[in-house]
Amino acid sequence: MKFGIIGAGMIGQFHGEAIEAMTGGELHSVFDLRAEAAQQLAEQFDAKPFSDLEKFLADEELQIVTVGTPSGAHLDPSLAALNAGKHVICEKPLEITPERIDRMMKAAEENEVSLAAVLNRRFHPAMDAFKAAADAGRFGTLTSASAYVKWYRDQAYYDSAAWRGTWALDGGGALMNQSIHTIDALLYLAGPVVSVQASTACLTHSNIEVEDTAVALVEFASGARGVIEGATSNWSKDGHPARVQLSGDRGSVFLADEAFEIWDFMDEAPGDKEVHQTMMKGSEAGLGANDPKAINFEGHQKNFEEVVGAIAEERESSVNAGEARKAVALICAIYESARNDGRKVELT
């Protein structure tokens, strides 16, 4: 399929590399309001540059669009692309409120095209093993399910662009921006959440509207309890990995980025030996923990390939908009609780 990129910044560069490496897709065009930026990225990948969105979307050869604008500016370009009959893969968060996502989903349905998200941290062997264990009920009664993203961003990161650290365009802070992939993984593995109680604060940064430190108590539909911690205020030399931890009365698994710190079940299974031989945690630095540019594009590549495969097979993608909506709804509920002094917020 022929891809077009909306947004020629750092994320657009990342998308270009993933598209270039993928099977089933090629980069056809690039759009950015900044003509020079569009030209520069397009030249790198031998694609067509556009600085006029209408002309970009009018190209009949263009089939699928990736959106890499700031978080709170995903709605308009996504709607424009969907209404032009293009399939859309939008960066995280799909949008910054469930209501905006609902508008995007409605447009996709009306135009009979697909709307998918970038949930790139779902695509690695350790996540596959973790999901298989959860789906097989190997934890027994799930009792604890938690996510921890104790990352660091310096003040220069927030000062580098006017939209960073704003409610309108970032949609939130450490939770909505940095922690959303790990929160998505938690929901993917542990199932839906029914209530949250939360506290957030901005403790180490200035001139931003959003949180750099957040803690939430979470109750799952299964009955399990857990904690979500998200921060951009936790310095370390190499950066802490993002962690997802599930425990029950028959097993415990702790995932750190793309490898396991713990894989321990009361009832052993044939695949456990391979996990211990190939997927256990070494001493690697956290992926993107201190530097957002340190994340590799392999997850994006597999994400894009999954969406293209789903379109070809006329099935719903595993990273469809409904899946992406879940983490946004949970984060918005956490913010609502924090704004109301930790009052319990029910999720419907």
- CATH fold topology of the largest domain: Dihydrodipicolinate Reductase, domain 2
Radius of gyration: 20 Å
- Overall number of strands: 14
Counted up, domains total: 2
Q: What's the SSE pattern?
A: EHEHEHEHEHEHEHHHEEEEEEHHHE
Strand order, sheet with most strands:
13-12-11-7-10-9-8-14
What is the CATH superfamily classification of the largest domain? Dihydrodipicolinate Reductase, domain 2
Q: What would you call the shape?
A: globular
Sketch the major β-sheet.
Answer: 8 strands, mixed
User: What's the end-to-end separation, in Å?
Assistant: 37 Å
User: What kind of oligomer do you see?
Assistant: single chain
CATH class of the largest domain, please? Answer: Alpha Beta
CATH architect. name of the largest domain:
2-Layer Sandwich
